[in-house]
Write a structure and sequence with these properties.
3-stranded mixed sheet; 13% strand; two-stranded antiparallel sheet; 39% helix; 166 residues; alpha+beta; globular
């Protein structure tokens, strides 16, 4: 048989944004493989003697790399508007995460000068509040760039959806 499950307002919003992204945002795809041996060794050394709940992860290392890249190439830290390419001074990195309400990408706001340990703490806090439905408006609305990472699920490649107007 079939059973219709009415979507929640959050799921409706997610579906609307995903459709908008694929229909209205120009996409292009580039991929390369990166040897991470040195980064993993550095991370392992950094985590020696650190409580499991406070360890740096590959995701937090990627967040730091993205922040550095957005500083170096400010054209990536921007929104596309009808008026033009709007460069944004604040670096607010969205991070895709699955929550009971659905897939969202809340932002770690004002993260220009965070180190990897600070990224770890901010990400843990953000993920916990996202699961509880306690995100703040800037975290939901002000991302300037979004990171999606599925590596922990043994995914070697995927194509993320661009979140408009990023």
């Amino acid at each position: 048989g079939r059973h219709l499950v009415s979507p929640t307002p959050m799921r409706k919003a997610i579906a609307r944004r995903m459709s908008q992204s694929k229909q209205q945002v120009p996409h292009f795809y580039v991929s390369c493989e990166i040897a991470m041996d040195a980064a993993i060794e550095w991370m392992s050394n950094l985590n020696v003697g650190t409580a499991l709940s406070e360890r740096v992860t590959l995701t937090t290392m990627m967040l730091k790399a993205v922040a550095l890249t957005l500083e170096e190439v400010p054209e990536f830290n921007a929104h596309w508007t009808d008026a033009g390419h709007e460069l944004i001074d604040d670096i607010n990195i969205g991070i895709a995460m699955d929550t009971p309400a659905g897939l969202i990408a809340p932002a770690i706001v004002d993260c220009r000068d965070l180190d990897v340990r600070q990224f770890s703490a901010r990400l843990r806090d953000l993920a916990g509040r996202a699961r509880q439905g306690k995100l703040r408006a800037p975290e939901l609305n002000d991302a300037t760039f979004t990171l999606s990472n599925l590596g922990m699920l043994d995914v070697s490649s995927f194509t993320a959806i661009v979140t408009p107007p990023q």
